[in-house]
Model the fold of this input.
Amino acid sequence: MSITTISFNFPSHCFSSSSSSALRSFSATPPPLSSLCFSSLSISSDMDSTAPTPSLFPLHRCKTIHLVRHAQGIHNVEGDKNYKAYLNPDFFDAQLTPLGWQQVDNLRKHVHSSGLYKKIDLVIVSPLLRTLQTAVGVFGGEGYTDRMDIVPLMAANAGNSERPAISSLDAPPILAVEPCREHLGVHPCDKRRSISEYQYLFPAVDFSLIESDEDVLWNATVRETKEEVAARGLKFLNWLWTRQEKEIAIVTHSGFLFHTLKVCGDDCHPLVKKEIGKHFANCELRSMVIVDKSMAGSDPSTTNYPGKIPSGLDHPSDAADDKNLENGSSNS
Done:
């Protein structure tokens, strides 16, 4: 199996000026270079010399990320018929449709049946209603029962969902952050509510990294460029190296994912680049690996073992071969 690495090339700016002050916790300095990795099977039957050279990376310098686009929102239904529907103020911070909740239920079944649920250390979510509903629906606990010691992830009927409350019991922590939001500006569906309102609807979700209660990033007349979305996305991926967690689910949006991943994979086979960069369907999940090639991550390995315990002679046979060659050269 060969590992193809995908390098990130950063523009000169990583966020628009309107976004930078609200995203200070993600550092204003250009992030170090990381890579996104995709595993692909390409074993040559005759082991010929023209086969691509595999890339190897220390495991503790890798993170597994599970990228999820939110389930179907009310804006997706009308927007699919007419793009101008995304300008409709009625779709402000759009919630999931009943079909979207069915998609959530099916992804939840897959996450549990595949064993992925038990591997997730952290869920990161964009602080919009449709992504929050998707995140807690897929990765939350079972039905909530009123207990003083357990806070629900979602209150009953949050966002007119007509769904019961969702428990936080045995669920991975869910952290909301601004940098993985959808393409900012103009479209009301991409404008968020106040954090205080979200905290009432999603009590056990962690909103502590969001500095402003009101939405100071969304602009009614100015929309982010595609390049700004991509730069924000790449900076977000590099910010993941500040986290200790090794396996992270990220619940976000189609535009954010598309523009971020589109600039990855220039050093891969075209089919691999295409696979990485294609649009996400509603409630689609794709698993990838990011690699710390710049020594940004400082976590020690939890599986490496130093050997030589107890200590003893361990002169390698290769060294003897080298010594024989050296002696042969000096005698000739």
Q: What stands out?
A: The beta strands are 2-7, 35-40, 62-69, 122-125, 152-154, 166-167, 174-176, 247-252, 285-291.
